[in-house]
Amino acid sequence: MKKLLVVCYSQSGQLTQIVSSVLRPVSESGQIELVFEELRPETAYPFPWTALRFADTFPESLQGIPCKLKPFRFDPQADYDGIVLAYQVWYLSPSIPVNTFLQSPEAKQVINGRPVVTIIGCRNMWLQAQERVKASIVELGGRPAGNIVLMDRAPNLLGIISITAWMLTGSKDRFVKIFPKPGISDEDIARAERFGVPLRDALHHGRWEGLQADLNRLGAVEVVPSYILFEQRILKIFNVWAKFIRRSGPPGDASRHFRLRLFIGYLFAAVFLIAPLATAVTFVLRMLHRDKVNRLIDYYASNRYPQETNG
Ligand SMILES: Cc1cc2nc3c(=O)[nH]c(=O)nc-3n(C[C@H](O)[C@H](O)[C@H](O)COP(=O)(O)O)c2cc1C
User: Fold this and answer.
1) How far apart are CA 113 and CA 208, in angstroms?
2) Coil, strand or helix: which one is 21?
3) Is the C or the N end of the chain the one with fewer CB within 10 Å?
4) Which of residues 176 and 200 earns the better pLDDT score?
């Protein structure tokens, strides 16, 4: 009997649904024991959020500052054949609870020497978060062995309004009956079951090398070229904002409110002005440097880390 550790955190339950769907073929095989570890912050992050609380998680998400988690229930000394790490993206970074897990001694114990498959459920921007997660896995002695990404399919600008309404009201209905339904579609979640088949086989045979190629053939990863440039650029500016906000006070403190309000204004400007600009610039860059952009797309669709610098 093989053993798979599944580490997950979800606020709305969306990511938990994705994980259940992907793992259906694994659990139905009857040959693999699943050990679930749901991460539980000592102080729960609110859902729905208030706008200020939503913004308040930004500096610590970006800088990878951990929160306090309740004690884990899994046995870090057990003999797992692989790890599934399911996470959502907060501000182009792995969410704080997942980042906290990655910094724990227990993560070091279980990840060291083992293949790790990541499952991401996010709105649409996950490239740089995954770079950080791959870096952590490699640093902990593990092997990034596969990546499955489910995203919101709404166009970027409509999607940002839908998801904001979802996050601030907790309702996953169509905002004012006009905007697209927020989050990942029920159909995409149900169809994610197909990714579990190569995962089950990799686990069963202990062969992980071809997993990402198999997953990619099933459409597990879509790299949107314009977000490569957008995420890289925005991260630089995010770093400046994170330092600026953290200088005004600790998380949750009212002394941060003024700077957080400024940041919310910036965030909307970035999404509505800078993102369309990045799309246009990427379009031109892709025409001029087709090979380079294609190499980047290929890199982000792979498990390689770090990125080769010779090209
Ligand atoms: C504070 C916060 C920041 C987020 N930032 C991003 C982001 O940078 N990129 C992205 O694609 N999605 C982002 N999202 C959406 C989440 O990745 C995720 O899809 C959503 O919160 C639902 O996850 P759940 O399963 O925990 O409910 C953010 C969500 C929250 C709450």
Assistant:
1) 13
2) helix
3) N
4) 200
Residue 287's CB is within 10 A of a number of other CB atoms, namely 9
Position 269 scores a pLDDT of: 87
State both tokens at 89: 């993206």
- Measured CA to CA, the distance from residue 158 to residue 250 in angstroms comes to 33
CA torsion through residues 297, 298, 299, 304, sign: positive
Q: What is the DSSP letter of 103?
A: T
Nearest residue by C-alpha to atom 30 in ligand 1: 90
Two tokens at 24?
């259906």
Q: Whose CA is nearest to atom 8 of ligand 1?
A: 91
Query: Residue 48, preceding bond cis, omega within 30 degrees?
Result: yes
How would residue 311 be classed by pLDDT, with cut points 50, 70 and 90? very low
The answer to whether the peptide bond before residue 306 is cis (omega within 30 degrees of 0) is yes
Domain boundaries of the chain, sorted by first residue: 2-223, 226-300
Give the integer Cα–Cα distance in Å for 79 and 243. Answer: 41
What is the CA(88)–ligand 1 centre distance, in A?
6
Ligand 1 atom with least separation from CA of 61: 1
- What is the whole-number distance in angstroms between the Cα of residue 210 and the centre of ligand 1? 29
Find the 7 Cα to ligand 1 centroid distance in Å. 17
Q: Please give the distance, rounded to the nearest whole angstrom, from the Cα atom of residue 169 to the centre of ligand 1.
A: 14
> 29: closest CA among 150, 203, 258?
203
